[in-house]
Amino acid sequence: MARTSLVRRGIAWTMAAIIVGSVVFWGVTHERLPENIRIATAASGGLYHEFREALGAELIRRRGLEVAVLETEGSPENRRRLLDGTAELGVLQAGSVSMDGLVALAPLYRDVMLVVVRDGRGIEDVRALAGKRVAIGLHSSGMQVSALGLLEQYHIALDSLEAEEH
């Protein structure tokens, strides 16, 4: 458990360093950063929460900026906040929302969607999930958008599952 926590923390700090470097480079070469930066990510407790905390701390330390971290429901809200100007930075899950009107500064890591089941359940294909209890991500999150897209691709109606949001 402690090793997992260290790995997650290391990933969060690495992602923060990449984004901070990209933001600093962009700010120096393109235009000045605003004095106040609002970062839209996701709910507390997840990897994106750790990332936004690390990014906020680095922006304060390196640039002396005032940083506000915004807890959101996920990628769709983050996209909306970026477009309506209520956030300057946001984390979006690849493929979960349109990037029209936005520019990606840096990838955090490759998003891979895995469908994992316990061995011995007789589930050999995604279509066999119908009627089963399935975690589909947090309400309105990028993960939920991706999970629902996957189910749609396999013609699995949400009401045919015991869908759990978490």
Note down, in words, how this protein is organized.
It is a single chain. By secondary structure, this protein is α/β, with parallel strands linked by helices. The chain has two domains: 89 residues, no CATH class; 39 residues, no CATH class. The chain is 40% helix and 11% strand. The chain is built from four helices and five strands. Strands 2-1-3 form a three-stranded parallel sheet, with helices on both faces. Helix 1 packs across helix 2. The chain is elongated and about 55 Å long. The mean pLDDT is 82.
Key phrases:
single chain, 166 residues, alpha/beta, 2 domains, two-stranded parallel sheet, 4 helices, 40% helix, 11% strand, elongated
Calculate the terminal CA-CA distance, rounded to whole Å.
20 Å
Total number of domains: 2
Strand order of the largest sheet: 2-1-3
Net shape:
elongated
Mean residue pLDDT: 82
* Biggest beta-sheet profile: 3 strands, parallel
Rg estimate, integer Å: 18 Å
- Low-pLDDT stretches are none
Instruction: Report the total helices.
Output: 4
- The residue fraction in helices comes out at 40-55%
Along the chain, the helix and strand elements come as HEHEHEEHE
Percent in strands? 5-15%
Tally of DSSP β-strands: 5
Q: Structural class of the helix and strand makeup?
A: alpha/beta
